[in-house]
Design goal:
Blueprint lengths: L4 H7 L2 H14 L4 H23 L16 H6 L3 H17 L9 H5 L7 H9 L13 H14 L5
Helix pairs in contact: 2-3, 3-7, 3-8
Length: 158
């Protein structure tokens, strides 16, 4: 049985979701330039969102609890500012040993297990996002390029 991306995001492992995305990219009429940039973004997102899903600690960019990982939620995190905020939220949470900066219930936040930020950090660094000082901005040209990549990912989530 073929699963939709909504089903894959809700229940499958990262490698299964990535395989489906690669297959969708192969079948898409997307420019090779955009196609080769989509997977690093998807991998960075999945590397942090799937562990949060598995811990039942998903939240949206405003910090509000989310019951499941959906294409819509994944796409909301595609904004470069949101991704940067997510990286800093998880970094601070990893250091504190509890999920911070959300409105999830305290008991759930206390059960947070650290999430590996390697792929997300590598992706953000490639777009000149400063990972040491959250207040520093990044070049608008990098934001525009990232927006194009996110736009190429969106039709694949249908």
């Amino acid at each position: 049985m073929i699963k939709t991306f909504a089903q894959l995001l809700a229940e499958e492992k990262i490698d299964t979701i990535e395989s489906a995305l690669k297959a969708a990219l192969t079948n898409a009429n997307e420019s090779p330039f955009w196609s080769q940039k989509v997977m690093p973004l998807a991998q960075a997102l999945l590397a942090v969102l799937v562990p949060l899903r598995d811990q039942r600690l998903l939240f949206d960019p405003e910090g509000k609890p989310q019951p499941r990982l959906t294409p819509a939620l994944l796409l909301r995190w595609c904004d470069l500012v949101s991704l940067k905020t997510l990286a800093f939220t998880l970094q601070k949470s990893n250091e504190a040993g509890r999920l911070l900066r959300t409105s999830l219930q305290e008991e759930a936040c206390a059960a947070y297990a650290p999430v590996d930020l390697t792929l997300l950090g590598t992706y953000l660094s490639s777009y000149m996002v400063n990972l040491e000082n959250e207040a520093l901005d990044f070049p608008i040209a990098h934001y525009n390029l990232h927006t194009g990549i996110a736009g190429a990912l969106e039709p694949l989530m249908k």
